[in-house]
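hey can u run this one w/ CU-O-CU linkage bound, need the structure tokens asap thx
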Amino acid sequence: MTKTTRREFLRTAGATLTMLALPPAVRAAQEQGPKVLRPAPAQLKLRPSGAATGVWGFNGSVPGPVLRYPQGADVALSVQNALPQATTVHWHGLRVPNAMDGVPQVTQAPIEPGARFDYAFKAEDAGTFWYHPHQASFEQVGRGLYGLLIIDEPKPIEVDRELAWVLSDFKLGRDNQQVNDFGDVAHFGGGGRIGNVLALNGRPAARRLEVRSGERIRLRLLNASTARIFLIAFENHQPYVVSYDGQPIEPHGLPGGALALGPGMRTDLILDCTGAPGESFSVLDRRDKGAELVRVTYSKKPPVRTRRLPPPEPIAPNPLPEPDLSKAVDHFVLFEGGLLGKPAIGLVDGKPRKLHEIMSEQKLTWTMNYSAQHEHAQMHEPLLRFGRGETIRLKLINDTEFEHPMHLHGHSFRVLALNDRPVRYRPWRDTVLMGPRGTAELAFVADNPGEWMFHCHILEHAAGGMMGTFVVEG
Ligand code: C2O
Ligand code: CU
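ok here u go:
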């Protein structure tokens, strides 16, 4: 394969050079972003006319500030709560020590209004991660509390430009304000609370983007919505996937021509702008009747290069412990319930209950291994216990009519199979999208001691019982 030299990018990309083109040593000295995160009420312009929307944001913005560090950096962030309710911040996808994981009641006391909590951890893995509250996250994330956490590889893929797209949605009434139906049991047990305004980086879709013919762009995608699942397609373009959930993978085209991105999931793409000056194309969501997310237009300027670039080289892997399947300990988690299909019976506070009978008062509609648990505060028994250093092979059995992006804290796992079919490249992920009545088989080394959340990232489902913990013995 012909290697594209750094010089080619420096020479051809001229005006669009970013810090990515700096030598690693210079870049490593740079850290971006604040030392303080302050979740607080804010205003956001989400509709072309009428009032701005009252939202909650970090440091006055939605998404919050991009936090960016070189791999291996010591991260220190002070969270100062200016919300009208308690909160915490979770560093989604980073393998941090348990006490820094930001889970109320389980790893720390909630940060009360007016109080602060100082987080500190080392950024072991490079990639695209994100941060969000873990307290009443169905409401706090829904109101706008999320941001990107980017850890730079020592040797990133050479590109002309890097962009990050944070996708989310907002449910607005005619007055442009957020509909105050957070916590509705119909969302907890159904498809989640789906918004009516699509947003990209906190501004209404469809956004405009101008590119140069021949440009190579790295795109970091995050789905920060509480419930919406995207199926993202690029008209007339074939981007390469280079990482899922921050973990590098052999570069390959979009399986099936579109990218499924459930809540909490990230994907890094390399997009080669192969169109001609003056052309345009859409990036759209195939699940939402082809709703346009971004309208991309080629500038009239001459191409930055005319020959096609070879496929990108893979990004170096992160230091993840490789599961040894010959010694794997097998476990399973069975998911039942929801407001479609047969009513579930589950253990609530240790007693078997028919969930549909207690639903409106308890708001629990899902079970994991027969138990339905309230958010954090009243969690009692861990779902599973692992010996430290064990390879765990985990089978997820979704006996519900709904899709569930299942997220594990403190670890990344390999996805071995979906619906009993082996998955190509066995990608590393922290969130896996299980289809309705589907299965997923995962493997990981339980090397990070502590009690870790395992929950659906449709945050209304998590609040409705689809939340539990795994303990990795110290
Ligand atoms: Cu992104 Cu338990 O969370
Ligand atoms: Cu779910």
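The radius of gyration is 22 Å. anyway lmk if its weird
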